[in-house]
Amino acid sequence: MSHDAKVHYLSRATFDPADSTVQAQAIIDAEMNKRMDLVHQLAVRLSALEATIAAVDAARHAAIAAGWTADQLRDLGLGAVENSKQSAGRRVAHPQNEPSLGAAIAVELAG
Asked: What pTM did the predictor assign?
């Protein structure tokens, strides 16, 4: 190696270590913001999905309350939604003096 060969990082006239720290923090912040945005989008979509499933369940209960059977609905291609409360086996506790949203919608649709 000759005497005139310079190492790149030593050839910078005005090197400020704080600049590297600021640039590194900007890269980390941008990546974290992207990740947080993706999690937010997922949460919004899951919330919308839960609302849709609840509405489907309410409509199903209304149809059954109006006289349709689960078998008839299935024959019509209106089987249970895979993630619905009934098919997923989930149970939601409601205080006795507070009717469930699904029951309220079922009554409204049947009446």
From this structure: 0.48
